[in-house]
Design a protein that fits this description.
The complex is a heterodimer of chains A (587) and B (123).
Chain A (H helix, E strand, L loop, with lengths): L1 H14 L4 E2 L6 H4 L4 E2 L3 E6 L5 H15 L4 E5 L4 H9 L5 H6 L3 E5 L7 E3 L6 H14 L3 E5 L3 H5 L3 H18 L2 E7 L17 E10 L2 E11 L8 E7 L2 E4 L2 H4 L9 E2 L4 H6 L5 E2 L3 E6 L5 H14 L4 E5 L4 H10 L5 H6 L2 E5 L7 H15 L3 E5 L10 H17 L3 E7 L19 E10 L2 E11 L9 E6 L2 E6 L1 E3 L2 E3 L1 H78 L4 H15 L1
Parallel strand pairs in A: 3-8, 3-9, 4-5, 4-7, 7-8, 15-19, 15-20, 16-17, 16-18, 18-19
Antiparallel strand pairs in A: 1-2, 9-10, 10-11, 11-12, 13-14, 20-21, 21-22, 22-23, 24-25
Helix pairs in contact in A: 14-15, 16-17
Chain B lengths: L1 H10 L2 H5 L3 E3 L10 E7 L4 H17 L4 E7 L6 H4 L7 E6 L4 E4 L5 H7 L7
Parallel strand pairs in B: 2-3
Antiparallel strand pairs in B: 1-3, 2-4, 4-5
Classes of the chains: A alpha/beta (587), B alpha+beta (123).
Chain lengths: 587, 123
């Protein structure tokens, strides 16, 4: 990260019109878009104890160490030894740098009581000392801390002002990039109006305490000939030095991978187009109290640890042991992961430190522990220590930072009852890639949990509400009853399902009955048909029998006639039938 | 300190014409109090020249036979400015008698110089 900012800063220096000198201070180069104006003095002002000296010192040290630009520190307030000790706590070995001729510390002691003014004088002595110091190490950077001490040491302010004007002009001629510190005055930037002389770049530091939590802030008041961030940016001083945390310093240039991270809940993965969250995305789980937000987080962690990935759990409401115990009750054992060093808990009450300190803590943990999954449970706890805007800004930076590191971040957010569910207390939803909403569904005297994916960028996620059951084997998502224009869960769903089953059975029964009836009708009809047929057949039979009888009778008659004719010796062949007929007719 | 004076002396003979490196006003026979004074100047600026002239006159008047003035040109020996914490030029430093006193300016206000050197009760 520091290397990146360094190279970025260098790049910007090249492209900007006004050439700039990178400070190397985390975040400051981004705000100033490249650093301080090269070869010009910059005024750093602020009230006592706001970190002016440290900013100036870091500018010098980083210049000497990172950019190979030696520096001179002209101290009016602290001697070299005190300075060395003070900055040692920031990890700067000033003594070593002095030994290596990278930095010169010149302590200018001025004591009013020891000085008698007699006539005309100038501050050539200071110029000579400064010049000598600059030449001795080939300094490119100069810090004068705090030149206002001269005002109390030298009674003739007219001379002093003229000399200061000359000093800053001289510094410009020397081409050194200077940082001048000045104490904040009443209604003015500095007590003695240094801003009159140093007008190229003015940075103001502030140290404010609101609701018992102090926040340091930095603002670039003025930067001639350059664009700069005009906001107040919170900054921190910790063991690695100064760090300003501008939201823009992180930027939106993180890589987006196609890789997915399973949520640890198969049905939830299914809802997220079958594969789970995107790696490096930010996930918000919001819901009212007791809806199982932490449980969802625990699943993600458990799954990641099982794959051998490192997870960071930042809890602010429960202790690590409590989380482990609770997870065990749903059949998830986190303790082995902690033992293996895969899971790290960072438990701190939000009020323990200011927002910025939290950010830095996370930043440091991320750098040291290098997790792939981070859980912040819950983010809403932070609102105790800052306004919504501040918390939002902080979270934005936090999420950006995590995203830039490719860490999948899951944040839980508590929604209070009665609030609009689709709105979190900290308005961060727009920052999140995936938003899971866990909600109570109250119906018919029963509360059940419902989960749905409110949004999930870049995937075709399910639009359905799933019923969310916390069992002793973890989370189980079941389908809710959807039908007849109703959505039912829990017992109501069960009852409805039973009812439907009964109804279905009844319908089936009815159908069967109708079918049987039909069969019977068919049978009846067939029987009737058979009967008629039988009747017909019997009639037919009878009639046919009649016909036959007649025929037989006819035959018999004919035969008889033949026989009679034969008996009568008639010419059978010629007259037989005719005769017969005739005879018959005659009969 | 004498070493420094020597090298400075070699540097230029012209400077000596206006401001000498060392002006020794000590008389060997006189013992006791010695006023060891250092005048820090920056080259031959008018203020420096004025200051030296004023100092010389004042010493000869008030410290006859017991003063020694060393003139240090910071342009030539800038490293010496640090030791006596010199900011303003010209600056007169009273090394002896202790405590060290600093008087800045061209020493044109004789009264103030005398007060500064503890030659006259504060005014």
């Amino acid at each position: 990260m520091p290397e990146k900012t360094k190279s970025d800063a260098k790049k910007r220096v090249r492209t900007s019109l006004l050439s700039k000198v990178p400070t190397g201070i985390q975040g400051l180069d981004e705000i100033t878009q490249g650093g301080l104006p090269k070869g010009r003095p910059t005024l750093v002002c602020g009230s006592a104890g706001c970190g002016k000296t440290l900013l100036a010192m870091e500018f010098l040290v980083r210049g000497a160490v990172q950019f190979n630009e030696p520096g001179v520190f002209i101290a009016f307030e602290e001697n070299a030894e005190e300075l060395t000790n003070n900055v040692a706590s920031l990890g700067f070995d000033l003594e070593d740098l002095v030994k290596k001729k990278k930095i010169v510390v010149d302590y200018v002691y001025i004591e009013r009581s020891e000085i008698e003014e007699t006539g005309e004088y100038d501050l050539e002595g200071l110029f000579i000392r400064l010049d000598h110091a600059i030449k001795s190490v080939g300094a490119k950077r100069v810090v004068i801390d705090t030149i206002e001490a001269l005002f109390s040491g030298l009674p003739n302010h007219n001379i002093l002002r003229a000399e200061l004007r000359r000093l800053f002009r001289w510094l410009k001629e020397k081409g050194v990039t200077a940082v001048i510190t000045g104490e904040k005055g009443e209604g003015t930037l500095t007590r003695h109006g240094l801003e009159e002389y140093v007008a190229d770049c003015v940075i103001m530091l502030d140290h404010r305490v609101t609701e018992q939590i102090s926040t340091r802030r930095l603002r670039v008041v003025k930067y001639r000939g350059s664009l700069h961030g005009t906001n107040e940016y919170p900054f921190l001083i910790d063991e690695t030095g100064f760090s300003v945390l501008p939201i823009t310093s992180v930027g939106l240039n993180h890589k987006a991978t196609e890789e997915r991270v399973p949520s640890g809940i198969p049905r939830l993965d299914a809802m997220l187009s079958g594969k789970g969250y995107y790696r490096g995305s930010s996930i918000l789980v919001s819901g009212t109290a007791g809806t199982g937000k932490t449980t969802i987080a625990v699943h993600l962690i458990n799954e990641a640890c099982r794959r051998g990935e490192r997870c960071l759990y930042m809890a602010s409401e429960e202790s690590a042991n409590q989380i482990i115990r609770n997870a065990r009750s749903i059949g998830i054992d986190l303790a082995p992961w902690v033992k293996k060093g895969l899971l790290h808990f960072n438990v701190a009450r939000p009020t323990y430190s200011g927002l910025e300190m939290h950010l830095v803590t996370v930043n440091k943990l991320v750098k040291e522990f290098r997790p792939t999954v981070a859980v912040i449970d819950p983010i809403t706890g932070l609102t105790n220590i800052g306004s919504v805007e501040e918390v939002k800004a902080m979270l934005m930076r936090l999420i950006d930072m995590l995203k830039n590191s490719g860490i999948t971040a899951l944040c839980t957010s508590l929604t209070h009852g009665g609030e609009n569910l689709e709105q979190t207390e900290v308005a961060v939803t727009s920052l999140m890639d995936t938003w899971l909403l866990v909600r109570d569904i109250e119906y018919n005297g029963e509360r059940t949990r419902g989960l749905y994916v409110l949004k999930s960028r870049g995937m075709a996620h399910s639009n359905q509400i799933r019923e969310f059951l916390i069992t002793d084997k973890g989370i189980d998502l079941t389908d809710v009853y959807i039908g007849r224009g109703m959505v039912l869960t829990g017992a109501a769903r069960k009852r409805q399902e039973m009812k439907e089953d009964a109804e279905a059975a009844a319908r089936k029964e009815e159908l069967e009955r109708v079918k049987r009836e039909l069969e019977r009708k068919r049978l009846l009809m067939e029987a009737k048909i058979n009967e008629i047929r039988a009747q017909y057949e019997s009639a037919e039979e009878e009639l046919l029998a009649g016909v036959k009888a007649h025929e037989l009778m006819e035959k018999a008659l004919t035969f008889d006639r033949g026989v009679i004719a034969g008996m009568r010796k008639a010419d059978a062949s010629k007259q037989g039938p005719k005769d017969g007929r005739d005879s018959g007719g005659k009969r | 300190m004498s070493g420094t004076t020597k090298t400075a002396g070699k540097a230029s003979t012209k400077t000596r014409a206006k401001i000498p490196k060392v002006l020794c006003g000590l008389k060997k026979r006189e013992s006791g109090e010695v006023w060891d004074l250092k005048l820090y100047v920056a080259g031959q600026s008018p203020k420096s020249v004025t200051a030296f002239a004023n100092l010389k006159k004042l010493c000869e008047e008030h410290l006859k036979g017991k003063f020694r003035i060393e003139v240090i040109d910071l342009l030539k020996n800038p490293q010496l400015a640090k030791g006596d914490q010199i900011l303003a030029v010209p600056t007169l430093v009273r090394k002896l008698p202790v405590p060290i006193r600093k008087i800045i300016g061209d020493l044109s206000n004789t009264e103030r110089v005398l007060v500064g050197l503890d030659l006259r009760p504060g005014g």
